[in-house]
Amino acid sequence: MISIEQALEKILSYVDVLGEEETPILECLRQVLAEDIYSGITIPPLDNAAMDGYAVQSRDTQGASRQSPRFLRVIDTVAAGSIPECEVEPGTAIRIMTGAPIPRGADSVVRFEDTDEVLRKRSSSEIGVLGEVAAGLDIRRAGEDITRGSMVLSQGTIIRPPEVGVLASLGRSRVKVIRRPVVAILATGDELVDIEQPLPAGRIYNSNTYSVAALVKRYGGIPRILGIARDNEDSLVVGLHQGLNADMLITAGGVSAGDYDVVKDVLAKQGEIAFWTVRMKPGKPLAFGIIKGVNQDGIARDIPHLGLPGNPVSSMVTFELFARPAILKMMGKKKLTKPTVDAVLEDSMVNSDGRRVFARAIVEKRDGQYFARLTGPQGSGILTSMVLANGLVIVPEDKAGVEAGEVVRVMMLDWSEE
User: Fold this and answer.
1) For residue 121, what pLDDT band results from cuts at 50, 70 and 90?
2) What are the CA-CA distances from residue 110 to residues 82, 124, 133, 360, 405 (Å)?
3) Mean pLDDT of the chain, nearest integer
4) In whole angstroms, what separates CA 115 from the centre of its chain?
5) Which of 29-33, 137-141, 296-300, 407-411 is predicted least confidently?
6) How many whole angstroms separate alpha carbon 149 and alpha carbon 323?
7) Is residue 393 within 8 Å of 361, Cβ to Cβ?
8) Position 418 in a domain
9) Cα(82)–Cα(159) distance, rounded to whole angstroms?
């Protein structure tokens, strides 16, 4: 058995950052920008009103108060998207809407609520200003957001909704990003039945494919479901060959020491096996290596293959620790680890066989301190424990157990990924 760190280092050494693709901006969330983005325009293009009100010369408001308004002649109205035709001169004002360009001659905007517009019954040709305003008040300056020719987003930026908005503000409908990895997923086992089929006695539905596919999608990859291979080499080889143009192959099941666990044998024959078994619980029977395949251009290459355990919890935990970082690296991301917190354990735990334990737990923050309690029985077949858990309590290999009340390290499952 090798350590978790050795296994992860080996896996990451076999994967590289993928090539770039041009993608519509609404389809590239969580992808990594593959180009520097420069602006061809200035935003905003002109000085404009930050509030609905009146464009005025600030000196015309000196001494104004609610008891002693300063009255100005209204000479025009400017809506957002239009260009003012009149110039503000001493003693005049132009009614202006938010976002409309500031007229020539004006140096401030008086908000509607600071005028007598609502209260007065005078003609709209005159407005009373109820307080002094300073020069520049409620004016957004040209270029205060983006100036023409400036670099707005740099290569390597992860695209989030704010970046999508910025790209749209520049008139960009498409952008170059590191492409998403295609991950082919093959379940193995004579006991498995597809979820759309009736369930015979003694069989179970193929849940691993769907939990793994959902994890692939969650972390930005493109899952390709290959179906179910039976517990013999011929069936497994046929299944694997369906995914030889993917960026990564994942199998679930068939990697332990049973008579019908053939994944590692096929891996050795079809490519090479880098390691088998990791010092962790759950997830000890984990195989990794390469399969000979072709890339998207039909050129021969080595495809990384990760053989996950068949027990559903083991499959999901090992995915989080090994497949997830590999997928993120292929997408060009730098932060590959999950966040961790220190928490007070509310249960006791035993570590009987010198492996690093990852126990499903519910983590809560109370009075500034994190607390973790186990989800219940920790069998690797209890998939509902993953539904309850938002973290994995970590017990090191060299620790025989943890008592209730001790502080433990917890790997969080449901915190922000970026």
Assistant:
1) low
2) 19, 16, 7, 59, 61
3) 93
4) 47
5) 296-300
6) 40
7) yes
8) no
9) 33
Place of tokens 């060299």: 398
| Residues 108 and 194 occupy one common structural domain | no
pLDDT at 231: 84
Residue 28 pLDDT greater than 50, yes or no: yes
Integer Cα distance of 160 and 20 in angstroms = 18
Domain count, the chain: 4
The pTM of this model reads: 0.89
> Is 417 a domain residue?
no
The amino acid at 6: Q
At 245 the three-state DSSP class reads: coil
**Residues 97 and 57 occupy one common structural domain:** yes
DSSP character string of 73-103: EEEEEE-TTS---S---TTEEEEE-TTPBPP
Could you list the residue range(s) of the whole structural domain that residue 318 is in?
4-18+180-330
Q: How far is CA 312 from CA 52, 342, 381, 386, in A?
A: 59, 27, 6, 9
Across-strand partners of 223? Answer: 183
Single-letter residue type at 139: I
User: Domain check: are 233 and 325 in the same one?
Assistant: yes
Alpha carbon distance 373, 320 (integer Å): 20
Residues 199 and 156 grouped into a single domain: no
